[in-house]
Design goal:
There is one protein chain. The chain has 144 residues and is of the alpha+beta class. The chain has one domain. Helix content is 22%, strand content 28%. The chain has three helices and eleven strands. The strands form three sheets. A six-stranded mixed sheet has the order 1-2-11-10-5-4, with helices on one face. Strand 8 and strand 9 form a beta hairpin. 28% of the residues are buried.
């Protein structure tokens, strides 16, 4: 499906369950230079969000996501210093089930660290080791 930025997209999560997502131009190559930027295509961004919702990696109005290929966490974007990022954060800022997301910079922004239950689930699924989970929780660098 061809997506465009800054437009509400209705996403079917399962039969008769939908949510709304906006691909924010602020988190794309021509967006805001002070924000993290997606480097994956629109389909991968939406897929990452969908996985976050269907896996219930959500707490309050925030969700966290990853892109997995063959059980390996993939790069999804970079920060303003061009450092590669592998975790995503999704936000429902107005609590109206209209979400947007961005690559999460857990090293520089404590609010971008996923909650423990999400990290533990990623360990259970084999996406992270316990050691990497603990480093992310503490905001320490690790090679995902």
């Amino acid at each position: 499906m061809p997506y465009t930025t800054d437009t509400e997209i209705e996403i079917e999560l399962e039969e008769e369950l939908t949510t709304t997502y906006i691909i924010s131009s602020q988190h794309r190559a021509t967006g805001n230079p002070n924000k993290t930027v997606w480097t994956v295509d629109f389909d991968d961004e939406v897929g990452c969000f969908k996985l976050s919702k269907t896996s219930e990696w959500i707490e309050d109005n925030y969700g966290w996501g990853i892109k997995i290929i063959n059980s390996i966490v993939q790069y999804i974007g970079h920060n303003f210093e061009n450092e590669r990022l592998k975790l995503a954060k999704f936000v429902d800022g107005n609590e109206n089930d209209i979400w947007h997301g961005y690559p999460a910079d857990y090293l520089r922004r404590s609010q971008d660290r996923p909650p423990t239950f999400v990290l533990k689930n990623w360990v259970e699924l084999g996406y992270l080791t316990k050691a990497k989970m603990n480093k992310i929780r503490r905001g320490q660098s690790c090679s995902l």
